[in-house]
């Protein structure tokens, strides 16, 4: 029952975000739209920002369950772009209402496990410490996340996604070389 209520509040938040920026949405607006009382909202969340964070975590969990071909950077990036596009109103209104850092952290959290899987695949047969694999994962995650966040900042225009193709071209084959640079160190 608790998850059902949380999901209902999340759907109300998404619906309201389609019309208004996050900083204009109140708990009162949410409970009226959802048909629950304020106590119910506060039983589950501290405030509207806590609800948005929960939505991000749930969306991340859904993405993490998807099967992805870790041999192709573009699949990872375009999957995330598709997900963000499906939630365009939520992402843009959150991005424009609160610290851009929250959306940046979300994009990084979503991308990192996929990049880590790509790094692990490429590291097979190369003696690279966990610390260095972690560093390389952060390096590539932040590069990809930076492009994704720039895409969000520019209004999520489809034409900007061409930069993701350029990213894939730029990093194609480089990961193995970077990992070899750390071999035995």
UniProtKB/TrEMBL annotation:
Keywords: DNA-binding
PANTHER family assigned to the protein according to its UniProt record, in alphabetical order: ACREF/ENVCD OPERON REPRESSOR-RELATED, TETR-FAMILY TRANSCRIPTIONAL REGULATOR
UniProt DNA-binding residue ranges: 26-45
Domain (HTH tetR-type): residue spans on this chain: 3-63
Coiled-coil parts of chain: none
Record-given protein name: TetR/AcrR family transcriptional regulator C-terminal domain-containing protein
Listed Pfam families: TetR_C_8, TetR_N
Organism of derivation: Oscillibacter hominis
Keyword Ligase: no
Record carries keyword Signal: no
UniProt superkingdom: Bacteria
UniProt-recorded Gene Ontology molecular function terms: DNA binding
PROSITE patterns reported in the protein's UniProt record: HTH_TETR_2
